[in-house]
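We now fix the convention by which a protein and its fold are recorded. The integers have meaning only within a learned vocabulary of local backbone shapes. A record is reproduced here so that you can trace the correspondence yourselves:
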Amino acid sequence: MANAMSTDRIRVDQTLHGYSAGHRLIYGSIQLLQSDARTMLVLSDASASGSRIPSEGYLTGYPLVESGKYVLARTWAAPEMSRPGCVWTHSLLIDFADLARLGSAGGLLECFRRPFGEGNSDIATKLEVAVTRTPTSVRPHDLERAGRWASALYGKPKSRITAERQGPADDVLVLAIWMQQWPRLRRTFRFCSFSADDRSTATDTFDLQLMDAGRSARPRMPNDIAATAVGQCDWLEALLNDLELPAQSDLRPFLRNVGSDFTNGRAAMVPLIRLHGALQPNASPSRLAEAVSELESLGSRQGRMGRAAAARVVLLRSGIDDRQLLDFAFQQVRADRELLGLEPAIVGRALLRWRPDLLAEGLTVEGPLQKAFEAALPEADLGELVDLLEVVPSAASAVFLARPDILEDSSFWRMTTIDILGLLRSLNIEQDHAARIVVALAEAARDDCSKMVVDCFGINPVVVALSAMDVVGIRSRMSWVHAIAGRTKDLAESMADGRLSHRPLLFALSEILAPDAVPNNMGTDPWVTAIERTGTTDDVLAEDLLAAFLFNRARGRHSMSTGRLFSLSVQRLHEAMASNRLSSEAWRIAKQRLPYGSVWRSWDQCEKLRHAVVDDFIDRELPPIEFGTVVDDGHLWIGLVDLAADSWRGRRYLSKVRSALLGAHEAWQIERAKLIDHKII
């Protein structure tokens, strides 16, 4: 594909060096520091004597460090000069900053012009060169040679590399390798595409020199390494793929982004290639760990961008649990006030999961860790927050403020370092939240907190929490039932307004409360309201005990709904007594208010029960309609009517019951009224 050339351009200085009659000629003079000018004069001369320079010339690339420029030069033989061995060298001087903008050196190659005759004394000092951003592709049949050169250059980064020049195409190949480098390495890279002698100096070593294939260069360059002597390595494939298909590779942009702060030249290439591969989505954590280790071997001050790239991947990948990798990533986070460019919440979540101890710094010092901590709290897992508080108790206030739902987690209440009383007293929360806290406390088996909770929040949160449990759950949390049972006035309110209407909870309360304990100062008895909001269960023993409890309460003097309490208890209690299924506890409660004396058969407890009910209706002058509907069992109801009809006061009361039933207009009630007719005539 043809190179895409942008309209962006750079300005390039140029000079032309040559010899005439034994004197050096310089055209297009520019201002350089003395040392740089001397370097340029030396390197613009012929690369070696006694070698036949190719007709197309050869390339030399080297930096002028003090002037901040890079020289790319082409040298041709100048046989037209009077002095043998003369050359023309056309040099382009590119600012380091402009060199970094180039994706290809193709535009620079097009600028070279070989002079003829005595040269051109009118050469312009400045050129404008189009910036070609698309890299030049290396042809497939050249990849093997490029691979040998690259293996030697980057596999032996401290050595001078030599290779045989085969032809003009080698110039393009050298430039492709040069342009593949990141800007900082590119501007320090020294190369020559045709040489017979080592062009290195005591201070400036050439990285790559292509040697004249027609001469034996080995005796004259004893310290070099031939490219053919270095084997190829696993990292080379990625480099060659990028050279062949740069548009399909992201290696070059990666090198450009992360290579900027490496000062150890070619030695950084292999670690960066390995890091690039390790950062791919399908790379294993072990591969990433190896790449990070190799990166760190370059020195603690090298590769800040590369370290940041690796740390970002570690923090973004949820599956990485390598402790060394995570410590490495967090080390980078602590050193970067911008959190490696990651969203603070991402960093915060990773810290919460792996190193909550580091967040202790973020609680007291305003900075990146504090920002990460605050950003992570809203979405953090509750278990991670609990782990954080175990390690950093001082984080409690910040956690409670951002995540009050942690108080609803049972694992939080299992922590032994919590000042529960102080915490409960400090909370200003809604009743629904308090109820969820009670559930968490109960799940955490913190029954020792039950009274504290009731003292701080009242009984309603506990009632709500217990009302969500079944019978087994409630019986395993009886300390909570005892805690609310001590607040009888509050119980009366909760029963009256419907908040306490969970039958299993009513069972539990009936087992531990005295029947008269809950006050009924006005209106319907709270127990009646609560019971009538629930349905009968299949728990026979619990229902029998509740019936005994309600009967006992009805016989007392504290309820304003005696008749309705009888309606809720008498028939079931009578059936239990008749079938001899009443538990000892239920019998203990019921017998407390059964009548004594010998007027009835002392052994017939059912008869005592019937007399107690009839006597209370007549003596207390309870609402007649309630007597008429006190039980559903017709046979039992007739037995009660018979007992009432045995006395003058009873018959007078039954007359009122008859009138009340006739006024109800229900067929079954009218039938009951007719039955009374036969009893009171």
